[in-house]
Write a structure and sequence with these properties.
This protein is α+β, with helices and mostly antiparallel strands. It is 42% helix and 15% strand. It is built from 16 helices and eleven strands. The strands form two sheets. Strands 4, 5, 6, 7, 8, 9, 10 and 11 form an eight-stranded antiparallel beta sheet that branches. Strands 1-3-2 form a three-stranded mixed beta sheet, covered by helices on one side.
Amino acid sequence: MQKSTNSDTSVETLNPTRQATGAVQMRIKNANSHHDRLSQSKSMILTDVGKVTEPISRHRRNHSQHILKDVIPPLEQLMVEKEGYLQKAKIADGGKKLRKNWSTSWVVLSSRKIEFYKESKQQALSNMKTGHKPENIDLCGAQIEWAKEKSSRKNVFQITTVSGNEFLLQSDIDFIILDWFHAIKNVIDRLPKDPSTPSRNLELFKIQRSSSTELLSHYDSDIKEQKPEHRKSLNQIFGSHLHTVCERENSTVPRFVKQCIEAVEKRGLNVDGIYRVSGNLATIQKLRFIVNQEEKLNLDDSQWEDIHVVTGALKMFFRELPEPLFPYSFFERFVEAIKKQDNNTRIETVKSLVQKLPPPNRDTMKVLFRHLTKIVAKASKNLMSTQSLGIVFGPTLLRAENETGNMAVHMVYQNQIVELMLSEYSKIFSLEED
């Protein structure tokens, strides 16, 4: 367990291999040892079951449970640092060499391990409910290095675990594989070399005092002083359906989306790698926490100074939509449209599909892609072309409900659809312009 020495809230994960929705329990424990400097220590305990364990705290017991149940991010979302498609080959198992066999995997990097899914993420999570466990790498004590000599493919690196397992990971796209290499290396560097030692990386998931302890205290006093009809509700923005958020706000574009776009256009258009570079995960989760409280959000505040935190939170919002921005029922139709050989026919077909979308999807799509065209317009400074943005946003904005066939092929179509909508924005959204 990770303990705080400054009244900060710390996080302890129980059975982190389970990718289920985490619940949170607030525990107040007395410090009976001279090793504990505080008389009380507050800990967020993330369980592996999709229900809330009743708080042990005897003070405002029911209220604390209500607050924590509604506002703390699920375990899966807290742990994930990076995810996406890569080519993977396992070349050794326990020191025994294996025949190299490349396959496409959905790769999920978390605080201590990497997991490989054969299906789409949605299908993989469904299978896990039936007891299926993904293949994984324990990164504690692992080594990572470039492995040009291990394959004729370009951009290959190798991960070797303490148990003697060896994996090769590869992507043809230079910046993608570089991002993955550095993200995995950073996780390995934060972990203890001895796998039996508790992970220092749990510090990443501390919900800082300013976003948790003080917020809980704020809501305690708020609810104590206010009459029931005046109490502030706790609305979930992240993880809610797009139409639900829009109906709640009486709009067709979520307020948070517009706020992020405004911040990026104000101070991020010229930033190298905007939307490609990852922001600090702990700070992104802090922002997520505050947004889900309906707190008045000021993205000009110094704590959101890193624009990559803002872009990371915006991507997380779209990634966590239960149904993507391009609805499941439209996925195959968009894929068929992008396959058309004639460019004008392709544009007209996509335009027709966009006009048939539900208003929240269509209007949010319009606002987002208009914003992304401004990113592309500054490509000479931010180095983000339509292709780069297609790679970043393709899998985030559209995916099949039930993945069938070749995932790598689907990924190509996803990217191409985003690229087309960026390069032909004015034609596709011509009837929608203000």
